[in-house]
Amino acid sequence: MTPAELFAAWGAAWLTRDPAERLRRFEQCCTEDVEFVPPDDRPVVRGRAALARHVTEYTRTWPAGVGFELTRPPDTHHDYSRGVVRWTFPSATAVGCDIIRIERGRIASMLVFAEP
């Protein structure tokens, strides 16, 4: 997958409501030992199954209609790619900078910086 496709697949995994589908999507875009480093005090999550469980719990109260988009094409060099992302909720918007490390065409790590 290209970096843009990886970001899109990552966002789609977060947005699906079906836990089995979420894991399947993470299996497509992430290495087995993927590492997710969130922007707040949540602990680092390691592994696709643990990531899918974390996202299921974290998003369980999200309302219908949440959206995800890259605000511009990702910047990429070597095995890293930076994407500026926008999450749209019915009553708010969240913007951040996500940095992925890519191994064998999949996300090996995701480091998230959220705008205040």
Q: How would you sum up this structure, described in words?
A:
This protein has 116 residues and is an alpha+beta fold. Helices cover 30% and strands 41% of the residues. It is built from 3 helices and 7 strands, in the order H-H-E-E-H-E-E-E-E-E. It has helices spanning 3-15, 19-29, 48-58, and strands at 30-37, 45-46, 67-70, 75-77, 80-89, 92-103, 106-114. Strands 1, 2, 3, 4, 5, 6 and 7 form a 7-stranded mixed sheet that branches. Strand 6 (92-103) and strand 7 form a beta hairpin. Helix 2 crosses helix 3. The radius of gyration is 13 Å and the shape is globular. The mean pLDDT is 96.
Record the SSE blueprint.
Elements lengths: L2 H13 L3 H11 E8 L7 E2 L1 H11 L8 E4 L4 E3 L2 E10 L2 E12 L2 E9 L2
Parallel strand pairs: 1-7
Antiparallel strand pairs: 1-2, 3-5, 4-5, 5-6, 6-7
Helix pairs in contact: 1-2, 2-3
Q: Which stretches are poorly predicted, pLDDT < 50 over at least 5 residues?
A: none
SS summary, helix count: 3
Silhouette: globular
What is the helix fraction of residues, given as a range? 25-40%
Percentage of residues in DSSP E strands: 35-45%
- Mean of all residue-level pLDDT scores: 96
The class by helix and strand makeup works out as: alpha+beta
Biggest β-sheet strands, sense, barrel: 7 strands, mixed
Rg over alpha carbons = 13 Å
- How many β-strands, per DSSP? 7
State the separation between the terminal residues, measured CA to CA.
Answer: 31 Å
SSE ordering: HHEEHEEEEE
